[in-house]
Amino acid sequence: MAGNYIEAIIIVLMLFIPLIPLALEAWWFWYWYSYGDITSAKLHIIETVIGTLILIHIIATIKGHLFLGFLFIPIPLVVWFFMKKSEEKIDNLNAMFQEKAEINRLLEIIDKATEPALLYKALVELGDLYVKKTEYEKAVGCYRQADEIVKINKGKGLLGLSFKIQQAEKENRVKKGEIWVCTECSYDNPRDTDTCTNCGHIPKLLKSARADIVRQKAEIKKDIIKSLLAVVLGAFGIAFLLTLIHSLPEGPSVFISLMVSLFIMYIIMKQLITW
User: Per CATH, is 113-206 categorized as 1.20.120?
Assistant: First the structure.
């Protein structure tokens, strides 16, 4: 008689434990939707997935598949993760196509333009696009052509065009590795110098060997302590897991499904949420 009560309690627990996180996930996505972070179409997809999973879980639990519901817990997050990633890829592709179309449009204007003002404007805009794409050599070429148009026609150009040329040339030299810019004073330094010639600052990527040796000693001590701690905790952890597996009503199946679900949830939440 007592065994039947225990079995009934286990079934009830296995039924309701997965329902709690699934319900929380449904509320979480609805909460995001109320703040405009999720579109109604995506919300309907996610809520339909969660509702279907709840129904399947209830049926599976009634039929004796007690562990199956734990595997359903991370599925809504996985679906949302792939929806988010696909949306980012689509946005990037759209931006790339729009950028390419804009470049082609400006190139066509430059090829056919007869008015200096129109040609000048198109060259400056094209240079700005090349800067955005980090194609600084092309940007410098566009800016210089625009500057030549102003000089030839003795007109007035943008006040900041000379600054655009200087910045594009500077970024191009940095990109090629000819110079590096000090993060403290913004001074341009030759690539063969380890310290800023203006303020003496040492960049993080160019720390001296002496500083590295001092830091390595402290890191070695920390690594030894961490390794010993990992071995001790690992031994206790394995013993605890083996004890837990043998104490579960369905053997390792419930435990494995629970651990897999929690691990997948951790990975997805780590990707989606930043503080």
Answer: no
